[in-house]
């Protein structure tokens, strides 16, 4: 979670291909400098080298969903669906009507930075009769990790859809339209809603917080850093080149247990200060953590089982991913505790060099894991973005 790639930051950085604007015309940085843009009018183009929703700042709301193809849809039906969905996503991102199945749920709202991101699960390739195109990283499912308690009905799926927007109605509207436009071709398998900090909630752009109260998202790889693209974007197979892989996990937080822990112990579980996210080895939020740093008594400043030590690329042969998770809260569980946690989303060039080794280690050695339950999971190939006039997955479905 975080403001690391906020719209304002991106506009300021002039990052190519990451244009974000206001409906009616993409604004240059001078226009942004003139004053904050009205929230509803912010647009994120659907078309581009990468799909929208990977590099942009997190919106306040997310709808996550997976769809399964209907029997008989096949490759032709899938092509039809991806063309239809891409056209709709592009129109909605521009703030236009959905066209087919427009239901007026978000009639008075602007696009609110809407992004729609599509991913393909391993099962899609068999369903659509295109197993020859299965990318190697999807050939085996994610391994079982110690402590996993996965609900298969809320995991996996042929098609993954991530819809982000700075308004809940706008995000819901997009999901509902996509669902109706899929009728006869694909059906909703699972759906979850999440949230992040609302733009303007803090006086200045700041990294977001999760439901444990931690500053979350500080040490994400950033566009422009050395090797960023190689860490996040896949180099093949051909149809996926420039795309990515996304790992999704629904991770419930045992908040009653967590909140019983005094703040200094919570900080030692993560390895960072709760107030400002600074590493316990010293400095401020963005000071690199010193994993060798010691306290006056000779103990490690960042404990051996602290989350940031166990998860760090330095502890995992360089394994890295771009985390873009959202919080969720879904009422009460039968035992009266909150059903709340993190919809963990991480984009990476190769899950075998990203999520898998890190989660293997976290499940064994991370002191945060005793406050978490992994309840749902998915791994999807995320095709590159579509050019104007094209659709997501075109190189796969017409190649
Ligand atoms: C397998 C990967 C990871 C899972 C699952 C995961 C779950 C998880 N994390 C937090 C809270 C924080 N994580 C932070 C850093 C961090 N987390 C991962 C990976 C996973 N986290 C990485 C690679 C890192 C960066 C480590 C580093 O190099 O410093 C932080 C610190 C702030 C930050 O850098 O973002 C927090 C806080 C929760 C609550 C959670 C599951 C619910
Ligand atoms: Fe983490």
TrEMBL record:
- Which positions fall inside the Dyp-type peroxidase N-terminal domain? 51-195
State the family it belongs to. Answer: Belongs to the DyP-type peroxidase family.
Name the cofactor(s) required for activity, per the record: heme b
Q: Which residues form the signal peptide?
A: none
What SUPFAM superfamilies has UniProt attached to this entry?
A: Dimeric alpha+beta barrel
At the highest ranks, the source species' classification is: Bacteria, Bacillati, Actinomycetota, Actinomycetes, Kitasatosporales
In terms of Pfam families, this protein maps to: Dyp_perox_C, Dyp_perox_N
> What does the record give as the reaction this protein catalyses?
heme b + 2 H(+) = protoporphyrin IX + Fe(2+)
Report the GO molecular function annotations: ferrochelatase activity; heme binding; metal ion binding; peroxidase activity
- Please name the GO terms of the biological process aspect recorded for this protein, alphabetically: iron import into cell
Q: Residues annotated as region Disordered?
A: 270-293
Show the GO cellular component annotation of the record: cell envelope; cytosol
**Cofactor binding note of this UniProt entry:** Binds 1 heme b (iron(II)-protoporphyrin IX) group non-covalently per subunit.
What NCBIfam families does this protein's entry cite?
Dyp_perox_fam, tat_substr_1
Principal location class:
other
Q: Which organism is it from?
A: Kitasatospora atroaurantiaca
Which keywords describe this protein according to UniProt? Heme, Iron, Lyase, Metal-binding, Oxidoreductase, Peroxidase, Signal
Q: What is its EC number?
A: 1.11.1.-
> What's this protein's name?
Deferrochelatase
């Amino acid at each position: 979670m975080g403001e690391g790639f906020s719209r304002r930051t991106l506009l300021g950085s002039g990052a190519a291909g990451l244009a974000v604007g206001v409906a009616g015309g993409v604004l240059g940085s001078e226009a942004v400098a003139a004053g904050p843009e009205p929230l509803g009018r912010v647009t994120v183009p659907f078309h581009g080298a990468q799909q929208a929703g990977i590099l942009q700042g997190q919106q306040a709301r997310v709808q996550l969903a997976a769809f399964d193809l209907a029997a008989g849809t096949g490759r032709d039906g899938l092509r039809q669906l991806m063309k239809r969905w891409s056209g709709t996503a592009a129109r909605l991102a521009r703030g236009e009507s959905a066209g087919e199945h427009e239901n007026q749920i978000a009639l008075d709202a602007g696009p609110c930075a809407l992004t729609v991101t599509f991913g393909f699960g391993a099962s899609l390739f068999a369903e659509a009769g295109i197993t020859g195109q299965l990318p190697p990283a999807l050939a085996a499912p994610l391994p079982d990790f110690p402590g996993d308690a996965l609900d298969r009905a809320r995991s996996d799926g042929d098609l993954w859809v991530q819809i982000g927007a700075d308004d809940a109605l706008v995000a819901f509207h997009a999901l509902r339209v996509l669902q109706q436009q899929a009728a006869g071709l694909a059906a909703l398998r699972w759906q979850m809603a999440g949230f992040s900090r609302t733009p303007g909630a803090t006086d200045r752009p700041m990294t977001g917080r999760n439901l444990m109260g931690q500053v979350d998202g500080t040490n994400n790889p950033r566009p422009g850093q050395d090797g960023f693209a190689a860490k996040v974007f896949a180099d093949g197979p051909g149809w996926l080149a420039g795309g990515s892989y996304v790992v999704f996990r629904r991770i419930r937080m045992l908040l009653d247990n967590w909140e019983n822990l005094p703040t200094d112990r919570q900080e030692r579980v993560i390895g960072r200060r709760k107030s400002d996210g600074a590493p316990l080895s010293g400095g401020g939020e963005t000071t690199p953590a010193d994993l060798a740093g010691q306290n006056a008594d000779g103990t490690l400043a960042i404990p051996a089982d602290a989350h940031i030590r166990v998860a760090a690329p330095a502890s995992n042969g360089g394994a890295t991913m771009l985390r873009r998770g959202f919080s969720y809260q879904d009422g009460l569980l039968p035992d009266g505790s909150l059903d709340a946690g993190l919809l963990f989303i991480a984009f990476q060039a190769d899950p075998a060099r990203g999520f898998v080794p890190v989660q293997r280690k976290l499940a064994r050695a991370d002191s945060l894991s005793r406050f978490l339950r992994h309840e749902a999971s998915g791994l999807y190939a995320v095709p590159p973005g579509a050019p104007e006039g094209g659709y997501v997955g075109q190189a796969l479905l017409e190649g």
